[in-house]
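User: Some background: our group keeps a shared notebook of sequences we're curious about, and every so often someone picks one and asks for a predicted structure to add to the entry. Today it's my turn. The entry only has the sequence so far, pasted here. Could you supply the structure so I can complete it?
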Amino acid sequence: MKKAIQLVVITGMSGAGKTVAVQSFEDLGYFCVDNMPPALLPKFWELVRESGKVNKVALVIDLRSRAFYDEIVEMLRNIGNREFVDAKILFLDASDAELVARYKETRRSHPLAMEGRLMDGIRLERDLLREIKMRAQLVVDTSSLTPRQLREEIFHNFQTAETASFHIEVLSFGFKYGLPIDADIVMDVRFLPNPYYVPALKNKTGLDQNVYDYVMKSAKTEDFYQLFIKMLKGIIPGYEQEGKTSLTVAIGCTGGQHRSVALAKRVGSELKGEYPVKINHRDIDRRKETVNRS
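Assistant: Of course. Here's the predicted structure to add to the notebook entry:
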């Protein structure tokens, strides 16, 4: 028997934070669809079920098109009847005063008051969404929430051990090939002993045990490593608490072959005890490419 698809319907008042919500669900690994016409949903579910590759879906449904009002309510009634769907409705709300302030700040028109008063559109939308709000499993009032706080609220309610989103990439690189532009933390280890100048190690990399040992046996390397790993363990929780879903720690030497590779391997291995970690070596094959072209 196939596992039920986890479905979250994101709906609510226009301006209450649906954009932040859908971005949060994307970070939680959900397949997200924004403003799909309800008439297309039967075919969508058929494709999802047949593919067998999607098990978490978040649908943003709002009232940007009045033609879909009646279909939205009917669709939400029927979704729960599908045996392969475990559906929840997340309704985002905010006070009239806060919605007015947000619309004034963005200078956008309310979808139900394109040529009329803003408050008329807000009142009409509240009336149209009353039944959907009553059916929602979770109602979040975003009046006093920052985008980060709304994100935290969504993570608190929908994140599971399987969808823990924060992860770390430890990346080695060579400065001669340029800085990795997506790095959050960059550390230069060109001050450490360089195996490049040892003939027996020159054509190897930091993944080879004898190169790794050469780099690590230096007292200078050990002193640096202990200070660096202590710093990382001290600041990583702050990045996570601020809502980052990933952190890239880049360690660079001259060519990205020896010292940075060895340090990235050791740093990544230690952090794996506390976080999901990927270790990548951006420039480790650059030397081979140069040799092959010559």
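Suggested note for the entry: The chain is about 40% helix and 20% strand. The chain has two domains: 5-163, 167-293.
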